[in-house]
Structure formats: C-alpha cells, structure tokens
C-alpha cells in the first residue's frame, strides 16, 4: 500500500509548500499532490507540521561513531558510518579514504562494492582523497603516502563496479591526459590539496576536472597577481565547489564573497567528518597521530585542522546562520547540488515524482526527527536492525 506523508512543510521546486501529500510507492515518490485529493483509505503518515526536505548527500565522510574508514576499510565500517550520519539527515554519502597505500585503496573499493551490493542504506560510492596530492598543501594528510598517478593507479581508481567514484588530486601532480582518461572512465575528478597555479588548474578544468574539494582549504590562494586554484574555481562557473561551513575552516565572510563571485547552485555542503561525529569520546587516532575535538573542531598535536566535527544538519544550519542563505538554498546545497555533482540529479536531491524516496523530516531548528532511504523510514530500520552481541 502507498504511504502518504501529510501535514508537513514540503520543500518542492516551488519552495516550501503546505497542504501537500508526498506519496511513497516502492521506494520512490509516486506523487506530490493536494492532501484533500487523497482517497479516504490512504495510509497517512503525519509529519506533525515539520519540515520535509530532500535527503542530504555528503560527498566527503571520513568516519563517524568512533570509526575511521582508513583504519578499517570494510563493509562493517561503512554500515556504522552510514548509521551515525543518517541521524543527522545524510541519506546518501560517500565513505572517504584520505591518502593511504594503494593496498588500502583497493580494500576501500572492495568494501564499497560489497556495501552497495548488500544494499547498505545510503552508500552511493566512494571518495578517494589522495594519495596523488601536493606535499606543499598536504593539510593533515601523511605526505609519505603520496605517489604518482601511474597506470596501476589508474586501473585501480577506475575499478569500482557499483556507485560513484570521486577522486581528489592535485592537477600539477599528474597530466591533463590522465585527468581526461579518468573523466572518460566515469570518475568524478576534483582538484584539492593542490599548489597549482591558475594556468595549470584552468587546463585541468578543460581536461575533465569538475569540482574543487573543500574550497580555500589546502589549495593555492587568490592573491593580487596570482589567481591560484581559488581564483580558477571562482572564475569557472560550471565547476562545483564543496565547502566546510563550520566557521573555522573558512571565515564566513570569505565564503560570502565566494557566493557573490559564483552562483550558489554550484556550491556543495560537506562535512569532511571524522570519527568524533556521533562518538562519546573527545579524541581519536589518525595514522598514528592523536586528534582531539577542541571547541567543536578536530585538531592534531600541532594545531592542524584534521577533518571536522561537523554533521550535515549542522552544515545546513550554519549555511543559514553564518552565510545568510535562505533555508531552501542551504538545503539544496546539501541535497540537489551534490546529487547533480555526482551525476545523480535525475533520481536524488529533489522531492518530485519519480525520484527516490530519500527524505528528511526536521523541526524548525533543523533537528532531524526522521529519515527515509528508498522509502524505508529510520524508525523501521531501527526496529528491524539485527541485535549484536556485546563484546566481552
């Protein structure tokens, strides 16, 4: 039987609408229609006046719930990371591997394939951030892991059988021809951790780079005589820019300026989340280094930013409060925009007939109440979750 979600403020292409019923059937949205047109026997799910939003899509998730994907690139890790981030509205995500040995990359690819084949809720593919980066812009990455993108690496990066593959690389550390080959093979190529000059980044965009990973962070800046990677990103109106809106990675004023230079429809909210999200402790290990959460930010012993302690609901909330965006824009930067970036805009990121029923119910403060992934509500998922015996 169809389920009709009623009594909510529904974010459609027209904006927030009341009096609309979102009808779910076989994991998809069968219709968005007037509540008064529903037959009396329709099964109604009362949303209690809450906000019904397209499910958030996080294209950069390093961990959650105490799990770091690099430490355990397995199906079980993906399940736990997805479970934790779903609580904050992420109904789609890419487990993200930071720079590591190619053997670890291979394990991450195999785990992602297995997770998608097993129907793990929310997993859309894999983000491989490095190890083809520039040591001058390494950030928290371990530069000893960096390497050249050769034929063996190309074969590995294009081996995911199911879902999307995003690869973040420094364009100056490879060639335009290699970037073109990756893009032609279906890989979403992003520039990040790069010290490349404007001309190098411009050529990479022309060759197949379609996005920039955490704009402003770990890339050559925009200066008076050298536009750098940031200048290339803001000048190019077709490429996508992911941003970490936590008030610490980038000053909100700088992001406001970026939004005046480039239309908001090309910005993507990400978390770059670390294991601390959904974790009870305040510190964890990252490739042998201790990272602690201090004032809501993840930093290592030297004070270097190490990913973030941000969740997707918080990112949307911050985009409104820090950047002055309206709620509909902020939500679309967390749903429709990343869906388009991944080539999934035809089935995810909107509340519209025919789209997958990936949805978030939230209150006016963006606290997540309930989620749906392919029509299955989080309440049912919790009820039907297998019981796991406690470890001795």
Structure, described:
This protein has 392 residues and is of the alpha/beta class. Helices cover 27% and strands 26% of the residues. It contains 11 helices and 23 strands. It has an 8-stranded parallel β-sheet. A 6-stranded mixed β-sheet has the order 3-2-7-21-22-23. A hairpin with a 2-residue loop joins strand 2 and strand 3 (15-17). The protein is globular and about 65 Å long. The protein starts with a strand and ends in an 8-residue tail after the last helix. Residues 385-392 have low confidence and may be disordered.
In short:
The protein is 27% helix and 26% strand.
Query: What is the beta-strand fraction?
Result: 25-35%
What Rg do the Cα atoms give? 20 Å
Determine the oligomeric state from the structure.
Answer: single chain
Unreliable spans are 385-392
How many extended strands?
Answer: 23
Q: Which percent bin holds the helix content?
A: 25-40%
Count of discrete alpha- or pi-helical segments spanning 4 or more residues: 11
The end-to-end span amounts to 43 Å
Kindly name the structural category. alpha/beta
Query: What gross morphology would you assign?
Result: globular
Largest sheet at a glance? 8 strands, parallel
């Amino acid at each position: 039987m169809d389920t009709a979600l009623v009594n909510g403020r529904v974010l459609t292409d027209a904006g927030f609408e009341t009096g609309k019923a979102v009808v779910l059937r076989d994991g998809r949205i069968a219709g968005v229609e007037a509540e008064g047109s529903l037959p009396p026997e329709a099964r109604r799910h009362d949303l209690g006046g809450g906000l019904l939003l397209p499910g958030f899509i996080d294209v950069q998730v390093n961990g959650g719930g105490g799990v770091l994907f690099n430490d355990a690139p397995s199906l079980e890790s993906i399940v736990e990371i997805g479970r934790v981030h779903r609580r904050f509205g992420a109904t789609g995500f890419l487990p993200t591997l930071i720079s590591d040995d190619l053997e670890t990359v291979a394990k991450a690819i195999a785990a992602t394939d297995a997770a998608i084949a097993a129907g793990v809720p929310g997993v859309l593919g894999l983000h491989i951030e490095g190890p083809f980066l520039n040591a001058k812009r390494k950030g928290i990455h371990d530069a000893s892991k960096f390497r050249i993108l050769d034929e063996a690496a190309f074969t590995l990066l294009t081996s995911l059988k199911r879902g999307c593959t995003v690869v973040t690389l420094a364009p100056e550390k490879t060639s335009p021809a290699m970037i073109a080959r990756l893009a032609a093979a279906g890989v979403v190529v992003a520039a990040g951790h790069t010290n490349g000059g404007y001309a190098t980044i411009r050529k990479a965009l022309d060759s197949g780079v379609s996005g920039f990973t955490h704009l402003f962070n770990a890339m050559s800046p925009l200066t008076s005589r050298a536009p750098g990677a940031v200048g290339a990103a803001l000048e190019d109106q077709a490429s996508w820019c992911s941003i970490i809106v936590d008030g610490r990675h980038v000053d909100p004023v700088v992001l406001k300026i970026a939004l005046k230079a480039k239309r908001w429809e090309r910005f993507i909210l990400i978390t770059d989340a670390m294991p601390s999200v959904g974790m009870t402790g305040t510190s964890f290990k990252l490739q042998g280094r201790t990272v602690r959460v201090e004032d809501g930010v993840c930093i290592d012993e030297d004070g270097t930013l190490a990913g973030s302690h941000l969740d997707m609901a918080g990112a949307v909330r911050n985009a409104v409060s820090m950047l002055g965006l309206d709620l509909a824009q902020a939500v679309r930067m967390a749903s429709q925009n990343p869906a388009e970036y991944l080539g999934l805009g035809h089935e995810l990121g909107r509340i519209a007939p025919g789209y997958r029923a990936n949805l978030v119910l939230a209150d006016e403060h963006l606290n997540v109440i309930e989620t749906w992934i392919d029509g299955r509500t989080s309440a049912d998922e919790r009820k039907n979750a297998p019981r796991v015996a406690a470890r001795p």
